[in-house]
Amino acid sequence: MATDPMFQEAQNAFAAGQHERAKDLLTRLLRKDQNNAEYWLWMSTVVESPGERVFCLEKAIKLDPNNVAVRRGLVLHGALPPNDNLPPAAPVRRRRTGDAADQRVSVKVSVDGLSSFKGGGLQQLWSRPVVRYSLFGAGGLAALVIIVLIIVSAVNGRPQQVAQQSTRRPSATAPSPTNTLLPTASPVVKSPTPTFIGPTPLWMFLEATYTPTPRYIETPHAIIESFRAGLRAYDRGDYLTMAQHMAQASRDDPGSPDILYYLGEAYRLQGKYQEAINTFSQAITVNAGFAPPYLGRARARLALNPATDVSKDLAQAIEIDPRFQEAYLERASFLINNGDPDGAMEDLAIAETIPPPAPMLYVLRAEARLILDDAPGALEDALKAHEMDFTLLPAYLTLGRAYLANENLAQAKNNIEIYLRYIEENPQAYVMMGSIYYESAEYEDALEAYDQALKLDEDLIIVYWYRGRVYIELGDGQKAVNDIVKAQRQNTQSFLINVDLGRAFMVAERLNDAYRQLTLANNLAQDDSQHAVVYYWRAQVLELAGNPRGAKDDWENLLALPPEAVPPEWITIANEHMLILVSPTPSATVQATATETPLPSSTPSPTVTPSPTATPSATPTPSPTLRPTSAPRTPTPTR
Question: CATH classification of 225-356, choosing from 1.25.10.10, 3.40.190.10, 1.25.40.10, 3.40.50.720?
Fold first, then answer.
């Protein structure tokens, strides 16, 4: 058993109901030692969501496979099948004092689809989360409470009681309650960690961040018990109950904008975005100088329509409260989504000066740096966010992207796989996983990942281009054409997409279309390196079409470019082909009669029936060196 004084302090904080303090201490301990199963077990008792608890428990079970408490916790969360050999938790009797609501250990179990079991009969029935959680019901919750209490007793060597708490429990980082709400301006208080809801950057497809969100402000409403009950529901994530209590509090005190703000938050966190917008607007009408409703309304509007311009609401929130860190972070996210990473970096620089530092700040800055092609800086920020909060799942996704941009495929794959174990409905994560498989030449796996991304969101047109590249490598030219045409129609001026469409035509043996498409790409080329790509592929198309003079011209054009614009292996290949083309005894392919260039054909349709033979066949008795060579390295998508 660990004897670190900080670990003992974390246990004592938990026993006293100071879960935020306990989590902070355990996070520090895990920074020093991530291989301590006890630390991960205790961390599972103070994190906020079922996904976090499963994550921590799975870390612990890998380090201590025989830990009964860990296994029981995983069974209760559906992450392990029931095991009759697990000894039951012994009953623990304790005396309650004070406010029963504050004394109760609250465990929230939600149907989040993190894992399931396969099989028939009772096993299949058990695999359904709704059935499983219904069967556990109150008994499951009580069992988990018992487990936590047993852990507390075992560590300290004696039974411990949860210390009595006061009726108000502000977090260590939350502002002190104010006595009155100023009528003309919002109080300058520490803003909460961001909770991104609705349409978000690709790294955020969660209903809330995994970093707990302290309250913006807790104005005393001593005579309104429903307000206090609503805050308690907010703290434990019960937003339906929160809405009911806040609605009652608002009826009792209709002139309090903070009550209306929390009511709007309750609606927003339930996905009732229009009701949230209406309530936030009502709060602004009551007090236009209160900052949080502007932020809440911006988030709810984005949730309804990601294309909504919410810059005015976000700017107003910041103008009213220049220390509103969460508003800066939300605006940075908005700017990143709208292609302004420089503006996002300015907001993030201000947010960094406002304590406490938020892990999401560094996740956002990593995203902005990825857009700005600062791969090393992005990796540094992503690692910092991960170090600050090991349970922050969005950080795993951004860290995977950053490793991918730095060409560390193994680490990229590891982090994105962790993310996908808990968040299975994010198409962008599958796009990144497909890119990793593509770069690793694992084409079948890449195809499966891209298929899953399109299954989740068929409007991700760019994924058709990525999948088309995979079909090129697999030799299925017509499927490659069908996919890349969809992407090319959306972005007709993309040089790379037009080149890959030409390559797809070549693999599909549609050589006239291939020549025409590569010539179109040549008109879009902006530098010598892009011209080199066209000459390299078009020369091979001309050879396959039986046009040696045209091929020779393109190989010569390639060799005439500055050496730094042409990959060295291409120069070697061009010289080899030139030797064959000028040989006194050319191959049958070179001797074939053909026009100077292939004749163009009509624009392709993405629904054309695939050719029976996927790999292009050469004309009779070709020279082996005249076969199409391997593709150049294509850019890895990072967004």
Answer: 1.25.40.10
